[in-house]
Amino acid sequence: MYDILIVGGGPGGMTAGIYGSRGRLKTAIIEKGRTGGQAATTMEMENYPGFFEKTSGPDVMDKFLAHAKHFGTEIIKGQATEVDLEGEVKKVTIKSGETYEAKVVILSPGSQPRTLGAKGEGQLRGKGVSYCATCDADFFEELDVVVVGNGDAAIEEAMYLTKFAETVTVIVIHSEGILDCNKKSAEKAFANPKIKWIWNSTIEEIQGEEIVEGVVLKNIQTGELTPMETNGVFVFIGSIPSTDFLKGSKVAMNQWGYIESNDRMETNIPGVYAVGDARVKYLRQVVTAAADGAIAAVAAEKFLEGHIEGRLTPEELSKL
Fold first, then answer.
1. What is the pTM of this model?
2. Catalytic position from the list 3, 135, 181, 292
């Protein structure tokens, strides 16, 4: 029986582990693969506070893990496949069949960027292929990049990239002038002299040896393939929360499968919290995931101390 059981070992989950274990609560993290989540696939990281010198995502995530283990957080290798969260004793079953019990569960399963499926995409991820402009834009200062996508996120990220890149070419599957983003963003993007447009197209292949050197564009109307030199590829065609294992549970999620939670990271089920990229939130970054994890663990500690059967009342919260 754990005090806190965390599903997912990304930066949010590991931070929750640090805070939980340091609070003398028996804490464990269930993680199916390498800890660190998407951050562990980022070859360079410059925007996490205190790490302004050149460092990598894996290095920073290794420090998160060492920190959590230092205070006694256990790591359970396995993939969560089923949960029973409604009683006072929460249960999480992993793929191998073992079931773990806890008084509190913190959900930190993360999300995955929706990929193009283009040849070379996987091999060059983190080497010029990116899914986060705010993470990686400064690596492409005065270089040429392409953006794939045309929704709000894609166009906003393309605008952000123009602060750094020499040119930003947006690859759009629709006919000329048609974007899926809001009208105001479209107008701003069309007026930006650094942004170029290629219509009725997608990327068939991303080319390069050690880093991205170019792409092969495919016209979706004619099938014509056209090579194009570029230094970076930013893909913004949506993300997929890793919440399939919660289907059938009563955890509230939005229409896209992201977990709904409040500013204390509480879900609709008492004693169940959500942190990181899999929850409904404005910004998905390592720093915000870590903040989520700290808040959830502290809220969980207060929950365990103060009101095991449900959320603290406003009067109880005011005394914390």
1. 0.77
2. 135
Give pLDDT, residue 293: 98
Q: Which of 136, 181, 277, 292 is catalytic?
A: 136
Q: With contact defined as beta carbons under 8 Å apart, do 48 and 36 qualify?
A: no
- Respond yes or no: is residue 181 known to be catalytic: no
pLDDT of residue 308: 46
Q: Which of 59, 84, 132, 144 is catalytic?
A: 132
- Residue 205 reports pLDDT greater than 80: yes
Q: What is the mean pLDDT of residues 21-46?
A: 87
Q: Phi first, then psi: give them for residue 44, nearest 5 degrees.
A: -130, 140
pLDDT of residue 53: 78
Q: Kindly state the average pLDDT of the residues 96-119.
A: 95
- DSSP label of 51: -
